[in-house]
Design goal:
Elements: H1 9-17, H2 31-35, H3 64-74
Length: 77
């Protein structure tokens, strides 16, 4: 049995549209709703955070060939 249930970002945005709550979300979540003014920023930030993405995989996985194809397709070094 689950101890915690986390709503999807869509559910969070819907709750915010009806004035039910406050949340911290990345810019890409809800950006359309901010543009059409159905939700708003509480405050603007002075500095943009840096985002880094890390690709992690096991060297012994059975899908190593597929992972290497993806790495090559995305031009990741």
């Amino acid at each position: 049995m689950a101890k915690y249930v986390f709503p999807s970002s869509k559910d969070i945005i819907e709750a915010l549209k009806y004035g039910q709550g406050l949340t911290v979300l990345p810019d890409y979540v809800g950006c359309d709703e901010v543009k059409d003014k159905s939700i708003r920023h509480l405050f603007s930030r002075a500095k943009q955070p840096d985002y880094k993405a890390y690709w992690v995989y096991k060297q012994t996985t059975q899908y190593l060939h597929e992972i290497r194809l993806l790495i090559n397709a995305l031009n990741i070094k």
